[in-house]
Each structure stands twice: as structure tokens, then as C-alpha cells.
Amino acid sequence: RYPFLQGNRKTLADEYEYVMQGKLFKISEGSKRDPKAEVNASFGGLLMMLKGEASQFKNFELDQRMFLLIRKL
């Protein structure tokens, strides 16, 4: 683990084991047959798909930048 110093102050990234920045590239609305919506993001080639209720994704937009913060439990 490498410390991430932003002007000699602690950041949210210091609390996690791994941090990645990505971009949202696809949003799929649910249908009557399958009411689950999907959001797809790319983190430098590592792809992530989130599936859930469409209401949970209402604030997401295409080309939105996002961070993935991972911590060991």
C-alpha cells in the first residue's frame, strides 16, 4: 500500500486499500419483463456492471467520472 498525499493532508483514499478512477459508459433502463436497471463503468480496462432498481441509478449520467474504493474486511 502506497500512501496518497494530497498537499500533506489525509484524503478519503487513505482509508481504503485500493482506489480507481473510472468513467460510466452505459446505462440500461429496466423493462416490464426485467425491472432491474444496469450501469456499466470502465476503470482503465477493468469493467464493472452494477444491477439494481432503476430508482437507485437516477442520479447517474453517461460519461460521469466515478471512483471505486476497495477495502479489505
TrEMBL record:
Organism annotation: Prunus avium
Membership in a protein family: Belongs to the eukaryotic RPB8 RNA polymerase subunit family.
Alphabetic keyword roster: Nucleus
InterPro entries in the record: NA-bd_OB-fold, RPABC3
SMART domains associated with the record: RPOL8c (SM00658)
GO molecular-function terms, A-Z: DNA-directed RNA polymerase activity
Gene Ontology biological process terms from the UniProt entry: DNA-templated transcription
Gene name per UniProt: LOC110748285
Taxon lineage: Eukaryota, Viridiplantae, Streptophyta, Embryophyta, Tracheophyta
Cellular component terms (Gene Ontology): RNA polymerase I complex; RNA polymerase II, core complex; RNA polymerase III complex
Name this protein carries in UniProt: DNA-directed RNA polymerases II and V subunit 8A-like
Subcellular location, record wording: Nucleus
